[in-house]
Amino acid sequence: MRVALAQTDCRLGDVDGNLADTERIIKDAASENADLVVFPELSLTGYALGQLADDISLWPDDPRLAALSRHGPDVVIGLLEDGRIRRHNSALYLSDGQIVHNHRKLYLPNYLIWEERKHSSPGSHMRAYDTGMGRFATLICNDAWQPMLPWLAAQDGAELLIVPTNSAAKLTAGSFDPAEYWHDLLTFTARMQQCWVVFVNRVGDEAGVRFWGGSRVIDPWGSAVATAPTWEESLLVVDIDPSAVRRRRREIPLLADARMGLLRRELERLSNESGAD
């Protein structure tokens, strides 16, 4: 299986221009025999949605989106989804002109410069899904920082986690370095869930924030098999072997003893004690 990581910049609010760039990149990936092309979070709209006066959300069944996957490879594309009353930060998995899966970002950060809850509503489901190349799951940026979600995806049979991201460079004078955190997180996730991880971050400057790139593919042993450069656009094409997941999970069956009943009971207890819905 050949995956193309489209580490792109985009123009805030310029959906038509971003669609044109996206189509060109998909054609480039097709010329390298890619089976799947993954773009960053919100790659069709830009991130700083509060800077825009107009609504630039898209219907998932917009024919322009379906057309992106008619050049050969499957496509994962990021957009602000029009959900009628609500808007969602979504990533569509498209294949042969059809929507295979729509993941709506579940955990919307609301700290420092991130104010996603002002512009999007959280999704309500996390599901693995079947493709022509295997069983995948999508987690958008901050979703991957929630330890239970990669585990749930693996328990649902995911062999490859797709992580479209908008991660900015260091934002404070303290010790928090997003690039370092992502490195450790992706390594841990791939090792503990014993799966491939495809991380695609954007680059470029937007609304005073600079995005650092560094997209990569991590194998089920936690090793980075390929890494894109920082700060600049690139199309990184990587061959991966989905059967390595099954080999790794046989070697050390970390996921086999999930004890779902125990987890259900403890989650219900914690939910009742906290008063959370």
From TrEMBL:
InterPro entries: Aliph_Amidase/BUP (IPR050345), C-N_Hydrolase (IPR003010), C-N_Hydrolase_sf (IPR036526). Pfam families: CN_hydrolase. Keywords: Hydrolase. Gene3D superfamilies: Carbon-nitrogen hydrolase (3.60.110.10). It comes from the Bacteria. GO terms for biological process: putrescine biosynthetic process from arginine. The keyword Hydrolase applies. One of its GO terms (molecular function) is N-carbamoylputrescine amidase activity. PANTHER family: BETA-UREIDOPROPIONASE, NITRILASE C965.09-RELATED. This is Predicted amidohydrolase.
